[in-house]
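Suppose a colleague, Dr. K., hands you the sequence of a protein chain of 146 amino acids and asks what its three-dimensional shape might be. Before reaching for any lab equipment, you can write down a predicted structure in token form. Begin with the sequence itself:
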Amino acid sequence: MGLAIELPPLTATQVEDLAQRQGLKLETSELERLMDLTGGFPYLVRLAFYHSIVENSSLEKILQQAINDKGIYQKHLHEQLWNLQQNPRLAEAFQKVLIAPKELDIEVGFKLKSLGLVNLEGSEATVSCGLYREYFRYRRLSDSLK
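The predicted structure, expressed as tokens, is then:
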């Protein structure tokens, strides 16, 4: 058995510091777009920085292609889609949250939160980051579940 540790999202200051440690200089607009897209999730932020460095590509270009099926997050997004396809109850709830913040059954809310798809304030769920909001609206989640 292991101890589950939940990493909180990084703040904009922490993301900027991490970028500097990686030798990246972020413009204010890039930092804002990165924070909106990733919600400060460490894995998503680090993946963007990694690809920017390895591909010698601007962060802005990487972020513009983030939600398409050839972007840097494609594998992660496909895994999230698969998770939802395996549980129609979660998919239905998440689909509602994509439209507007929604009160969720506690079990459904916790499962969506554990996937990283939502933030919970009490039992009200909101989409956790712009990446999921944009991707699942773009993909029309309801069409992907048929």
